[in-house]
Amino acid sequence: MSGMQLIYGIHPVLAALTFKQRTISRLFLREDYFCNTPHEHSVSRSWISRIRTLSTEIGIPILTASLEDLRRLVNGRSHQGVVLEAGPLPVEEITRRSVSNWLREHTNKVNGNFLTHQPCRPLILLLDHLTDVMNVGSILRSAIFFGACTVIFSSAPCVVPSALISKLSAGALECLRFFRLSSTVQDLNVLKDSGFLFIGTVGSGTSDGDDGRYRASCLLRPCEVGFGDDGGTGVTPRPLILVLGSEAKGISAEVMNACHLLVRIVGPHDSAIAGPDAKYSPIPTSLNVAVSTGILLYQLTKLRHDNELVQKAV
């Protein structure tokens, strides 16, 4: 199984089979899923039936396995009776051609996720040296929910797509397109020259009074985040890259220099509100990066797509 990965869990496997980004080898199913009699897993039978149908359509072998065999395959992780052997997800390089293709896919005439064919927004997440797979799993799940369909990884150290992240993201990993910064400054310049708007995330107490890029997220205005503007890309709202840095070190200097805005979520323990001693408080004074991402994605979505949201809510 050199170069192959074992995807496990109902939703990750179903997503991998549906969106076919991986080279798929074979499917392992818990042996009692082939029984016709009802059992304690009857709630998941419709999902398993769909997985079997897709596997048959693709033409991959379906093998039965005992519970113990499946547990051994995935090193004891929760597999829900289904394991898929497949190749790695593709991670593309950023070039002028790949960026041009991305913009063409997101013009107003072609506004669906090229994988899921669901409504897709011109929004990219850039994970700058994030290494916590649990955070990344949650971030990717939020990304799909809010209509993003592309993720960029920074240079190492940074996570790479894996079976564990697929499971932690409830299969969202399988629905996304991935790029990696191979030459950070050059790649960022390609994106900026193409008209992308970069918004970086920062923690409390990092505001530089001489740097006009800093904003509290609650004070952002639609015109600042690409609403009603295409930035010369032909895509409205303007394609936006939300940069997420590690909780320990924040955004790297090279990436921060590329950001048009630097935003933070203001809370009651923010140093600007609570005073200079706030950083010594025994109470947590910052948000987990995955939680922050969900909040910012909601705020940005409301600012950039408010009319669309109102129409869907009616």
TrEMBL record:
<keyword id="KW-0496">Mitochondrion</keyword>
<dbReference type="GO" id="GO:0016435">
    <property type="term" value="F:rRNA (guanine) methyltransferase activity"/>
</dbReference>
<keyword id="KW-0809">Transit peptide</keyword>
<feature type="domain" description="RNA 2-O ribose methyltransferase substrate binding">
    <location>
        <begin position="6"/>
        <end position="92"/>
    </location>
</feature>
<dbReference type="InterPro" id="IPR029026">
    <property type="entry name" value="tRNA_m1G_MTases_N"/>
</dbReference>
<dbReference type="Pfam" id="PF00588">
    <property type="entry name" value="SpoU_methylase"/>
</dbReference>
<dbReference type="GO" id="GO:0005739">
    <property type="term" value="C:mitochondrion"/>
</dbReference>
<dbReference type="InterPro" id="IPR001537">
    <property type="entry name" value="SpoU_MeTrfase"/>
</dbReference>
<dbReference type="GO" id="GO:0003723">
    <property type="term" value="F:RNA binding"/>
</dbReference>
<dbReference type="InterPro" id="IPR047182">
    <property type="entry name" value="MRM1"/>
</dbReference>
<keyword id="KW-0489">Methyltransferase</keyword>
<dbReference type="InterPro" id="IPR029028">
    <property type="entry name" value="Alpha/beta_knot_MTases"/>
</dbReference>
<protein>
    <recommendedName>
        <fullName>rRNA methyltransferase 1, mitochondrial</fullName>
    </recommendedName>
</protein>
<dbReference type="InterPro" id="IPR013123">
    <property type="entry name" value="SpoU_subst-bd"/>
</dbReference>
<keyword id="KW-0808">Transferase</keyword>
<dbReference type="Pfam" id="PF08032">
    <property type="entry name" value="SpoU_sub_bind"/>
</dbReference>
<dbReference type="InterPro" id="IPR029064">
    <property type="entry name" value="Ribosomal_eL30-like_sf"/>
</dbReference>
